[in-house]
Specification:
The structure holds two protein chains of two kinds.
Chain A lengths: L7 H10 L4 H19 L2 E4 L1 H16 L10 E5 L26 H8 L3 E6 L39 H8 L5 E6 L5 H6 L3 E4 L19 E6 L2 H11 L17 H5 L7 E5 L9 H16 L3 E5 L7 H16 L19 H12 L2 H14 L4 H22 L5 E5 L15 H5 L6 H6 L3 E8 L5 E8 L4 H15 L10
Chain B lengths: L4 H10 L9 H15 L37 H5 L5 E2 L2 E2 L7
Antiparallel strand pairs in B: 1-2
The chains are: A alpha/beta, B mainly alpha.
């Protein structure tokens, strides 16, 4: 078997049996990155020498009988997680050359468990985007293309586009990602892989470059549901350095993947049936529900009446929080500085931020500043917080009737790199099915479930109760088994 | 509600983002497009609804206070390591007091 063809679980088994070594795996992935990254642009920074050193050390630990749960597995880290000694850009020019003196808790947890880091993967600038086209380090290309139109280059989705493209093209066994409105699940769906945004508080946000603190949550993307479960178990856990991280035990998520869905009540929200949704997405949704009924689950129509207000609510709350979080980029303590001769401190701030932030980030800071400004706070920000409470209440009421909710992951398959770029609101609509889980703090997993007419992957989403990722994994794994998704992207190692 | 150019300039100033004269029109159009779309929230009846602050779902253990004690220190080299204009043990900035 070619080393890059392993799933994470397969690689861990092969490492345990001595069939392969971490050095062999790491060399194979670094070679694949060297060949394919010039086209895909999934990695911003490749840490080849460090990865090989880490792989050697990992093989030595294994030989000494000290193998951790992820011992020797080469993975990629979204360039939003601070990695001590390795440049962390958040996809922004304003952080070019920034070398964090500390490690994020999530990446530290992965290192503790023996993972090997191949490098830092690309993303939309400050994780703001749905196509990975706002990165200051260039766009990422989706390794998939349309069967009838192979020359049109497609977006991998965003913001975790580098994470999803790298895993789909087999440049890593898995990757960390983050999700503020759909940034794990939408790119996973566009790239034909799995990805979970856990419950708010499941993973520590310490050391993750902040976008919208009440919505941001870390999670993994990987080729299978079980691989996501293995990664999440290592990533998750209480951290005293993040006051919002939950002090709850971390379950054995992988065990949940094998659990039967028999008797589970699956909610089907009627408000997720959009007027102009492509018929193949509606058909895939119905197929997914049938698969679950075939396994003994019951499907029940439910109502989440405030769904249509979720995106506008998000586009008040997220920019408001972003405008506060991004105030720290001032050209004084770290990152880019832009000065004009004779300019004062205020001029330094204004020039640095105008030059260092891209268009979408500037736009969101402006919106956020406006909705928080005196005289508009109540009409916009407070109003959005109240509608957010109603969206959360919709779900709480649904949990009285159902155990999980199944929806499409995205309203379309991956689109062309030059499409949907003219109007910000059109781009925002990508997250219509995913953003509600962020607003309500709930876990959601995207699972590849089928192909559209042009051969592009489509995903289904399973939303779970607070801190019940296990049911997301059980239902997701059942969909994965029934879908038997074996299609592969054209560009891969 | 539609933002006029003076308001767009005021927001840019609050946000400390330099906006060149030729950029104002485009920014104004984009912001008004987004705000027009957000306007639909006004249609939701939120009478008596407690605003949701923070991101925690129902059932999350309450946040707690940590012990009030110093947990680190002597990190000035690490803190200054990324400074764009380090001056000894300080961050350098343009003169602010004449």
């Amino acid at each position: 078997m070619r080393p890059t063809d392993y799933t994470l679980k397969g690689a861990l088994d092969a490492l345990a049996s001595g069939e392969t070594t971490s050095v062999q795996l790491t060399e194979a992935f670094l070679d694949a990155i060297a060949r394919l990254n010039p086209r895909l642009n999934a990695f911003i920074t490749v840490t080849g020498e460090q990865a090989l050193e880490a792989a050697k050390a990992s093989d030595a630990r294994r030989a000494a009988g000290q193998a951790g749960p992820l011992e020797g597995a080469p993975i990629a880290i979204k360039d939003l997680f601070c990695t001590a000694g390795t440049q962390t850009t958040a996809g922004s020019a304003i952080l070019r050359g920034f070398v964090p003196p500390y490690e994020s808790t999530v990446s530290a947890n992965l290192l503790r468990d023996g993972a090997v880091f191949l490098g830092k993967v690309n993303l939309d600038e400050f994780a703001m985007g749905s196509s990975n086209s706002t990165s200051a380090y260039g766009p990422v290309e989706n390794p998939w293309s349309r069967a009838n139109d192979p020359d049109t280059r497609l977006v991998p989705g965003g913001s975790s586009g580098g994470s999803a493209a790298a895993v789909a093209a087999r440049l890593a066994l898995g990757a960390t990602a983050t999700d503020t409105g759909g940034s794990i699940r939408q790119p996973a769906a566009f790239c034909g892989i799995a990805g979970i945004k856990p419950t708010y508080g499941r993973c520590s946000r310490y050391g993750i470059v902040a976008f919208a603190s009440s919505l941001d949550q870390a999670g993994p993307v990987a080729r299978t549901v079980e691989d996501c479960a293995i990664l999440l178990r290592s990533m998750a856990g209480f951290d005293p350095r993040d006051a919002t991280s939950a002090d709850l035990p971390v379950p054995d998520f992988a065990a949940a993947c094998g659990r039967s869905v028999k008797g589970l009540r699956i909610g089907v929200p009627k408000e997720y049936r959009l007027d102009n949704m492509p018929p193949e997405i509606e058909a895939l949704w119905q197929q997914g529900l049938q698969w679950l009924r075939d396994e003994g689950a019951e499907t029940i129509e439910i109502s989440l009446p405030h769904t249509k207000y979720a995106l506008p609510t998000y586009y008040v709350v997220a920019p408001a929080e972003a405008s506060s979080n991004l105030a720290r980029y001032d050209g004084v303590r770290f990152g880019m500085r832009e000065v004009a001769p004779g300019g004062d401190l205020r001029d330094l701030y204004e020039r640095t931020r105008a030059k260092g932030f891209g268009q979408e980030v500037r736009r969101r800071i402006m919106i956020g500043t406006y909705v928080l400004s005196a005289g508009y706070y109540d009409a916009y920000y407070l109003k959005a917080q109240k509608v957010r409470a109603l969206i959360r209440r919709d779900f709480e009421q649904a949990w009285g009737k159902v155990d999980a909710i199944v929806t499409p992951a995205t309203p379309s398959a991956a689109f062309g790199m030059d499409e949907k770029q003219d109007d910000p609101v059109t781009m925002y609509l990508n997250d219509v099915f995913t953003v509600t889980a962020n607003l309500a703090g709930l876990p959601g997993i995207a699972v590849p479930a089928g192909l559209d007419a042009s051969g592009l992957p489509l995903g289904l989403q399973v939303i779970g109760k607070p801190f019940d990722e296990e049911t997301c994994f059980s239902v997701g794994a059942a969909i994965e088994r029934a879908a038997d998704f074996t299609a592969l992207p054209g560009i891969r190692a | 509600m539609s933002l006029d150019t003076a308001t767009v300039k005021r927001i840019a100033s609050l946000a400390r983002i330099r906006l060149e004269a030729e950029e104002v029109g485009r920014m104004q159009a984009e912001l008004n497009g987004i705000l027009g779309w957000i306007e639909q929230l006004q249609a939701v009846d939120t009478e008596g609804v407690e605003p949701m602050a923070g991101g925690a779902p129902e059932g999350q253990p309450a946040m707690r206070m940590r012990e009030d004690k110093v947990t680190d220190g002597d990190l000035h080299e690490a803190v200054l390591a990324n400074a764009p204009d380090r001056m000894g043990a300080y961050f350098g900035v343009p003169k602010v007091v004449e």
